[in-house]
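Question (not urgent): is this output format expected?
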Amino acid sequence: MAAGHASQALTAGDLDALRTILARMRTENHIDRWVRLNDEFHNVINQASGRPRLLELIQRLREQSQPYIRLYVQRLHKSAQARKEHRAILDALTDRDAEQAEIAVRAHLITTGRAVAAYTRSADES
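Got this back:
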């Protein structure tokens, strides 16, 4: 929902910032810095939504999911997958396509969640 609202509100500077963040993520090998860049990418979008209550909810969920994001990238080596999904989000935002932006973010969250859940199940079984 935040991405849909942000699609209409992001400035040219915001879009440039998102492109820069993605470029930095592509070459970042240190997990802590990569996770911070990931947070920064999503925060630019979420802040542009202009929905304070939604931002509070998203922030709480992001704080709770931080260990799983780290796991997704570090243990599952999914930075390339995340980069592809981030690119789809950015493309939709650049096109000012609210519906596609929401779809891209939703797909990104679902892919990450499923991968982490599968990893956790397999770790529990071993």
